[in-house]
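Protocol step 4 of 6: structure prediction from sequence.
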Amino acid sequence: MKQLMLGNAAAARGLYEAGCAIVSSYPGTPSTEITEEAAKYDEIYCEWAPNEKVAMETAFGASLAGKRSFCGMKHVGLNVAADPLFTVSYTGVNAGMIIAVADDAGMHSSQNEQDSRHYARSAKLPMLEPSDSREALEFVKRAYEISERFDCPVLLKMCTRVAHSQSVIETGERIELPAKPYEKNIAKYVMMPGNAIRRHPIVEQRMKDLTKFAEDTDLNFIEPGENNHIGIITSSTSYQYVKEACGGKYPVLKLGVIWPLPVEKIKNFAKSVENLVIVEELDPFIETHCRELGLNPVGKDKFSLLGEFSQNLISEKLNLQVPTGKKLDDAIPPYFIF
């Protein structure tokens, strides 16, 4: 059934349809509603944890016990959960595990504007980045598949605009999965130095395998354009702004897997256009990757490191016509509470 749904609600619907059994989170805008919406499904056990570290450890425990699990937090909460994050990267999982982190470009409700994509790179974990509610639902289901295929948690990066804006989704049925049997494996799950040193090469090989996955997956795709004068690489809400500003004028490489980033796909896309432009909010994450590949894109020399972008900003920076819109001549009357 098709319906209009907020991004966070769509992500919760994805948890339901994917057979998630346990959700443990710590509330923090703009992530809170994922857990609030998931709690409406009787098939999912949901709880608020004392902090993000406990939430992640609870979700990891559920994964070890053989049930698909989820934990959610905002970007600053991932700082609190960083201790188990880096360890579960080494141990891997049993049943699928998703870690949702919601960034807040523009600092609508946050004390800083950090970019969570760096955590994926540092922890050597895959990260998916939906650009609307439909993708929020679908990426959750794909994240569980990736988690179990590559034996690792998957980071799902939301942001304020995706979390709190609506788009059309199509709901499906829930799949009921039997619990995966737990097998005692001290060498895999107990990260004492002697075990951890043997797990590190497995993590590095996993990143190579995930990079190959990023090359081939339909989560990263190219949309052709009418004019190859420039080609745009983008993701998340920036993709929506680019499409609204440019339509089909320029080719676009849209990245759903934001880490690891593909190599050959980006190189081949760059060869197909005269000028490469990176449109991404906050840090030059994609841009830095492109420069490491020997490319010379237009990026943060044109687009700000600060705050949210908009359709008009993209139009202005790409030298397109900027819509002027209409302004109210009269001031809006004040709102009184009697």
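Step 5 (inspection) to follow. The first strand starts at residue 2 and ends at 6.
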